Model the fold of this input.
Amino acid sequence: MSYHYNEAFENPDYHNSETLESGRRKASQMNSMFRQNPYDSSPYDSYTDHDGREQRQSYSVDIPMATMQPGLEVSQSAKRWGTPNANPYGNTHINHSFEYEPEFTYTPPSTLSTVDGPFARRSSDASEASIVQRRNRQRADSVFTTSSDFDRTDANAAAYNENKESQEEKIIRNLASMTTRERIKAIQKMPKTMKEKREIRNKVLMEKTRKSVSYSTEIHCCTQCMYKIALSYRRFRNGLSELFQSLQLWQKTLKIIGGKFGTSVLSYFVFLTWLLTFNIFSFLVNFSFVTIPQFIAAGSNNLSFTGLELLTGAGYFQQTVLYYGFYTNSTITKIENSTSYDMQLAYIFTIGIYFVICFFSLVYSMAKSFRNNFVNPQTYSGNAGKLLCIWDFNITNEKAVRLKQKNLSTQIKEALSEGKSEDLNLSLKQRMVHIAIHLAAWIFSLGTTAVCCTCVYYLSINNLKLFMKGDGTELENQAATLVLPIVVSLLNLLTPFVFSLLELLEKFQYPRNQIYVTITRNVILKMSIIGILCYYWLNIVATSATECWETLVGQDIYRLVVVDFLFCLLGSFFGEFIRRIIGTKCLKNLGVPEFDIARNVLGLIYVQTLTWIGIFFSPLLPAIQIIFFFIIFYVKKVSLMMNCQPPRKVWRASQMTTLFIFLLFFPSFTGVLSVVAITIWRLNPSEKCGPFRGLSSIFDAVSRWIDVLTNYPRSAWVVWIYHNLIESVHFFFILTVIIIIITYLYWQIIEGRKIMVRLLHEQIINEGKDKMFLLEKLRALQASTRDTPARKGASQQFSTTSSLYQPPGQLDQQRHLSMPNYLERPLEKNKSSFSAKPPYTADFPETSGFLPGDPQRQQPSTKPGVSEALALAMRARQQAEREMEDEDEEDFRS
Amino acid sequence: MGGSASSVPPDLLGEYQELTFLTKQEILIAHKRFSELVPKEERDQILSARVPKDKVVTLPELRANPFQHRICRVFSTAEDGDDSLSFEDFLDMLSVFSDAATSEIKSHYAFRIFDFDDDGTLDRKDLENLVNCLTGDADGTRLSTSEMDQLIQNILEESDIDKDGTINLSEFQHVISRSPDFASSFKIVL
Done:
C-alpha cells in the first residue's frame, strides 16, 4: 500500500479540506489586525474597509512581482513578513494600478501565500513541493480562481486545477482497478473527511460500473452471482469478526483499567487474557477428544471425598479424569461392529496437536510482536523524540491525567539534568567499584538460586521417601505432600523481593538496564526451580517403584498450581493492601504502592509453564487454570483499583510485552516441549495405569498403529509419511540445512539493508546541509541587493509608478518608512496585536533569519537563478525523503 | 439501539462501515453516545445535527484529555470554524482513534493534532505547546524557559532529520515508526 501511504499526505486535497478551516479563520483575524495598523489611518482608509472584497476581485497583477523591486522589501526578512506597515509602500493601496498592498492584506485564506503563489508555481514543478508550499498554492488558487480577472495567475490556477484533477483521476483509476476489499481498505486509509471519502468512493463506483458496462454485458448474470457471493462472504466475515469482538472478555473492565492506569498496567491484564484464551483452547481440545470418550468408558469411583483433596489433589481425585492414571488403554466402542475410538492414539495425538498449534501461534505472535516493536533498535536514539508520542490517549480519568502530567514533568526534568551530568566521566576507581558491585550482586543472586534449587531438590526427594514409606495417618501424609509446593511458592514469592533489594545497592545508570537485569534474575530463579522439579519427576519419580508415577507427577503439579494461586492472592493482599495501609497510615513517605508489572507477569509465565508440563499428566489442568485466571483477574483488578497508583516510570509496554512473549516461548515453552518429548520417547509408562500401560515407551503406541496400517493399502500414504518424513533422519537433516540457508540469506539481506539505511540517513543530512548552504547564499545575495541597487531601484520605480497618485508630502513618509531592517524591528515588537501570532517566523532566532523550511516563501524577492537552485535543492530533498520513506516501508515489511 | 427515531439506516450503516475502521457495533454505540449529546428537540435529525465543542468535550473520554480542543478542531468540518462536530465528524474521529486504524493514519492525525497553529509543520512554538500540554499547567509541573529550550533543542536534534528547524509530517512519522507504543496509546474507545 505504499502508493496510498505516499498519496495520503501528498494529496493537496487534504490541505484544502474544510478541517483546516481554522487556518483561514486565522487569516481573516489577521486581516482585521492589519486594518488596525497605524498607517491605515489615511484618508483612504474607509475605502479599503468597505471595498475590500471588490478590490480584491478587481485588482490585476499586471506587473510581475519579481521585477518589482519593492517586493524585495516585503520579503527580505522573515520578521517583516506579517507587517505590511513596515513596507515602504505601506499605504500605497490607494493606487489602483499598483495594488500590491491590498492584495497582500485582503486575501482571506492566507495573506502570505497570495503573494508567493504565482511565483512558487513558476519556480518549481507543481507536483514536487513541500506540504506547506502546496497548501499555500492551494490557498492562492482559491483566491485567484474566484477573482474574475484573467491573467497569468488564472492560467496558473487552471493548470494547477487540471493537475489536481488528473491526480484525482489517477487515484480513482487506481482504486477502480483494485479488488473490493483492497479498495475499501485504501479508502479507509485516506486521511480525509467522511464527505470526501464518500465522494471518492462514489466516483470509483461510477468508474467501475462504466467500465464493466463497456466491457461486456453477456457475463452479467455470472458476475452478479459472483458479486452476491462475495457480498455475502463479506457480510459473513464482518458478522464473524463482530462475534469475536463481543466474545472478547472484559472489554469494559480493560477500558477502565486503561483509563486509570494507562497502557503499561493494561498490558499485564491483556497478557492475562491472552493466556486465558490459550487455556480455554487447550481445555476445549482436551475435554472433547480425551475426557468425553473416557466418560463413556469410565468405571465407578469408590474413593470418598473429604475436601482436603481440593488442596492436595490426591485421594478422591486419583480416580477421576483429572489424572493420567485414570484413563483407559482400551479402544472404546459404544456400538458393536462400528468404528472404535483408540484411547492411546487419541491421547497422544490430542496433546501432540495441541502443542504444535501452541508452537505455531506462539511463534506467530512473537514474530509479529518483534516486527512491530523492534524496528531498527540500533537507530533508536535518546528519549526526546519519544515525547512526540508519549501521551496515552487511553487515560480518561481526570486524576490520572494530572498524575501522568506530573510524572512526565519530573521525568523530563530528570532526563534534562541527567543529560547535563552525563558528561562527567567516572574515574577508573569508581568504575571498578561499580563493576565489583554488579559482580557481587550477580554472584549473590545466582548463589541464592542455587541454594533454592538444592533446597527444593532434597525436599522433594524426602517427600518421595515419605510417600513410599506410607506410615502415619492418611491426613498426615496428605499434609506432608503440601510442604514441597508451599516451600517452592514461598521461594518464588520472597526471593524476588531480595533481588529487588539488590537493585537499591546496584544503582544502574539507566532504569531500562535495571528492569532487564531484574527480569533476567527472576527468570533464572523460576526456570531453575522448575528445571530441578522436572529432573526430580523424570529421573527419580519415573524410575521409582510407585504404582503410577504419572499420576504422582500430575498431583505434584496440581498442588504447585493451587498453592501458587493461593500465594498470588496472599501476595496481592500483603504486597499491595497492607503495603498501602503502611504507606498511607504509618510511613507517609513510602506512599501508595505501584503495580509491579514485571513481577506479576513473570508469575503468570511460571504458572503457565507448570500448566503446560502438567497437560500430559493431568489433562484437565487447563480447566483449573481457567478458574484461577478468572479469579486472579478480578482480585488483581480490585487490588489495583483500591491500592495502587499509576506507574511513575515510563514502561515501554510494547517492547516489554514482546519480551514476555519471548520468555514464554523460549525458556518456558521450549522447556516444556523437551520435557514432554522425553516423557513420550524415553520413559517407561507405568505398568498398571494410564492409557499406555504395558508399552515400553509411549511412542510405541504410534509405531504399533503404523504397523497395523501397513496392512491397509488405502492408508499407505500415512505409512509412507511416517517412514519417510517423521522417522527419517535424512529428511530432518535436509530440512535443517534448508532452514539454515534461508536464515543466513535473510540475515545477509538485513545487513545490506542496514548499510543502505545508514547511507540514506547520511544523504538526507547532507541534503539538509546543502539546503542550508544555499539558503545562506541566498540571504547574502539578498542582503547585498537590498543594500545598494534595490533601494535605489525601489524608490525610483515607486516614484515613476505612483507619483501621480501620491499626495504631496507623503513621499517623505515613504522614505521614512523604508528605513533599514534593524530600525524596524523594535517597531514591530510594539505591534503586539499582530506579532502575537505570526504564523511562521516569530520564534526563530535572528541568526537563521527566516524559516528555512519554507524557502519558497521568500521567492518573490529572489532572482530566477537563485530560485532555480532552491527548487533544485528542494527537489533533491524531497526525493531523498521519498526514498527514505520507501526504505522505511521496506524495513517494516521485512 | 436507542429510540425508534434514533437508529442509523442500514444502507448508511454499511457505508459508514466501508468508509471508517469501525465495526457495526462501534458505529451503533457511537450513534447512541452522540445522540445523548444532541438536544432533545434535534434528536430526529441526528445525522445532520452538529454538536458544539463545549458539549463534545464533556464526553468522559475527552473530558480530561489535554488535547481535547485540538481534537475537536482537527476533526470538525464546521464551515464557520466553531469546532462543532457532526455525526460523521464524530465517526471520523473514532475511526482514527480505533484499534483497527493503521498507525500511518494515526500518526497523520497525531501530527495535525500537535500542529497547534495549523501551518503544516511542527515548529518550536508547536513543540512548546505540546510539552505544556504533556506536563500540565500547574506551577509545579511547568518547565522553566531554559528547560523548555533545552528539551525542544533535544527533540529537534533527534527528529529533525533534514535540519530545517521544524519537524514535518514525514519526519514525524519517522519518529513514530520508532515508537511501537504509539499505536496502542493513540486510542480512544467509547
Notes: Chain B touches chain A through 98 residues (CB under 8 Å). Strands of chain B lie at 50-51, 85-86. The two ends of chain B are 15 Å apart (CA to CA). Residues 103-185 of chain B form a domain with the Recoverin; domain 1 fold (CATH 1.10.238.10).
